[in-house]
Specification:
The structure is a single chain. With 131 residues, the chain is mainly alpha-helical. The protein has one domain: Zincin-like (2-Layer Sandwich), CATH 3.30.2010. Helices cover 46% and strands 11% of the residues. It is built from five helices and three strands, in the order αβαββααα. The termini are far apart. Mean pLDDT is 85; it is low at 1-8.
């Protein structure tokens, strides 16, 4: 019979939300070499789902815009610029962990592009290759 596992033998368990946060941080880190100055004051965060105000309502939702994967907000007054990525819509769209990482990266690129007034292909030249 085996005894209890020593602490160093037990892998650190990461929750799904922690792994998702890591994908967002990885995406931001990949953009920093090129856009570090522009992103230095941008706050990045994760929310579970978009607010109802971003979803529309009623029959228009069926044929309307797809559920957003994120949003960008320009700096206003003392509020810094912000990029928010929505976890559940991206997880629902991904078929596996690798796909989720790619979708999160694309969502971050799209929101940074919106914030900077650029195309996603300008922010990340590889973006066009994936679309």
């Amino acid at each position: 019979m085996r005894g209890p596992l020593a602490p160093q033998q037990v892998p650190i368990a990461r929750s799904r939300s922690e792994r998702f946060d890591d994908f967002v941080l990885d995406a931001v880190d990949r953009l920093k070499p090129r856009w570090g100055d522009q992103l230095a004051s941008v706050e990045f965060s994760v929310e579970e789902v978009p607010p109802v105000s971003e979803l529309g309502d009623g029959p228009g939702r069926v044929g309307g815009e797809p559920i957003p994967f994120g949003r960008a907000r320009a700096a206003a007054g003392s509020d810094p610029a912000a990029v928010v990525v929505y976890r559940r819509p991206l997880e629902a769209r991904a078929r596996d962990r690798d796909t989720l990482g790619a979708l999160v990266h694309d969502a971050v690129v799209e929101q940074v592009a919106s914030l900077l007034g650029l195309s996603p292909e300008t922010v990340d030249p590889g973006y066009d290759d994936r679309h």
